[in-house]
Amino acid sequence: MKVAAVKKPGGPGNLVIEERPDPVAGPGEVLVRVRASSLNYHDFVVVMGGIPTPDGRIPMSDGACEVVAVGEGVTKWKVGDKVLSLFFPGWQSGQIEAAGFNSVPGDGADGFGAELVAAPETAFTRMPEGWTFEEAATLPCAALTAWRGIVAEGKIKPGDWVLTQGTGGVSIFALQLAKAAGCRVISTSSSPEKLEKLKALGADHVINYKENPEWGAEAFKLAGGRGVDEVVEIGGPGTMAQSIAACRPGGHISLIGVLTGVSGEVPTAALFSRNITLSGITVGSRRMQEDMIDAIEANGIKPVIDSTFPLEKIADAFAHQASQKHFGKIVLTV
C-alpha cells in the first residue's frame, strides 16, 4: 500500500510517500480503505517534528473510510460500510480517563495517511448520511472538539452568546454548531475578507482583533452588555485575558488551543471573581462523536472545505496550512 511517512527530524522535506505491506484485519478488527483525511494543527505539529514520534510514523488523525474486510468476531461493521475514525480510539464514553496520546492515530500510533488501515471495530463510528468521504474526513478532530467544547461541556442553549476566535476548523465548526443550536455568535479575525466570510456563515457580529486589541470588552458590550456565555479559546495565554473580559459572570471558556504559546500570564483574579469555568478540551469520546453526527444530520450542517490535495501532495497541503491563507478545512484524498 501507499503511505505518507514522517522521517526524523520532521519538516516538509522529510515527509515522504512510500510503499509498505498491506495490513490484515485481526480478531475484532476491521480493515478499511482510507478515502479521505483532513489536516489539523495537531497533524501539523507531528509533521514538523514538534511532537516526537518514531521514525517513519504515518501521520493524520482523521480518516473517512470504507470497510473492505472484517476480522473474526466483528459484529458492528460489514464490508462496504462507510466509517469514520476516532481521535481517541479507546475513549468510548463517559469522562476521559487517560489524557495521553499513545493511541491517537498519527501520533502515538500510525494514522490515516495510508491507503489501508487495520484497527479495532470500536475505533470507528458511522459517517453522516449523504456525506462524501471528503466532507466526513473533516469531523473527527475539529468538529468533535467544537462539539465537546460548546455542547458537551459548555451546554449552550438557544439565545446564548458564543464567541469564536479565528477561522480555523474548530472555530468554523463552533460557529456552525452554535447557530444550529439557536445561539448568537461573535467571531474574531484579523482579515477583513475572512470576517465577511464569517458573516456569510451566520456570525451575528464580527471583530477585527488587530484593529481592536481590546476585543474582549467589545464582545462583552455586543452581547447585550452582559458578556458572552461561551468562548471557544484557541489562542491560549496570549488571548485568555480578552476571553475572560468577554465572559459574563458564570460564563464558560473552552480552552482548545495554545497558538500563542504553551504558558503565560492569566488574570486569575478576574477568572474566579466572575465565577467563570475554564475547561481544557482535547477532542472527545466515541459517544460524543455519535451524538454530534446525529445533530449534524438533523440540522443539515455541511463543512467548509478550503481545498483538496491528493495524498502524494501532502507536503503541499501542509505548506498551504502553514501559509494561514485557508478558510475552513484542508482535505487529503487517498
UniProtKB/TrEMBL annotation:
Residues 1-20 are annotated as: Disordered. Signal peptide: none annotated. It holds the Pfam family ADH_N. InterPro entries: ADH-like_C, ADH-like_N, ER, GroES-like_sf, NAD(P)-bd_dom_sf, Zinc_ADH-like. GO terms for molecular function: oxidoreductase activity. Residues 10-332 form the Enoyl reductase (ER) domain. SUPFAM superfamilies: GroES-like (SSF50129), NAD(P)-binding Rossmann-fold domains (SSF51735). SMART domains: PKS_ER. This is Class III alcohol dehydrogenase.
